[in-house]
């Protein structure tokens, strides 16, 4: 736990609290949804984390599972801040982003998880991410985002939440010649080329 804490700059008490909440300390725990090991990492996430952080192939290995869990906690903290990382860790980042974008409540299990862990690790959770929803929505309202074609979405789905760029404010289109490098002046001459001239 100390190694994971140092490597991913996550307090050891956070790792311990998540491990206790997720698996009760059982290295061989498998959730009904398939999450594995002490830190209850989903199989696809385990593969990504184990490759990215040079871990072994066994998700029940306590060392590697704790390292993967700490790495994932760090990713969720960096991505969602202290107000959302626990929810994203438990419900998954896509589900948490959906909550932020739509206001759809998080699962009861996740809300209980957040309340329990927030007090254990000493962070304050406000409104289960509603202020995070404003922060998340802010980037979606930024100028320059282009609406996707409605025909790309099956019936019942939409591209709402994506801002349409006003055509009068659209950036001018560059011709394809702007993408072709000039024949001269693109690279610095090598020292042996300079001497030979």
TrEMBL record:
Broad class of enzyme this protein falls into: lyase
Keywords annotated in UniProt: Lyase
Keyword Nucleotidyltransferase included in the entry's annotation: no
Residues making up the signal peptide according to the UniProt record: none
Annotated spans, Disordered: 150-176
Domain Transglycosylase SLT: 3-100
UniProt KW Lyase keyword: yes
EC numbers: 4.2.2.n1
Pfam families for the chain: SLT
One Gene Ontology term of the molecular function aspect: lyase activity
Gene3D superfamilies in the cross-refs: 1.10.530.10
Compositionally biased spans, kind Polar residues: 157-169
Top-level taxon: Bacteria
Family: Belongs to the virb1 family. Belongs to the transglycosylase Slt family.
PANTHER family per record: MEMBRANE-BOUND LYTIC MUREIN TRANSGLYCOSYLASE C (PTHR37423:SF2), SOLUBLE LYTIC MUREIN TRANSGLYCOSYLASE-RELATED (PTHR37423)
Name of the protein described by the UniProt record: Lytic transglycosylase domain-containing protein
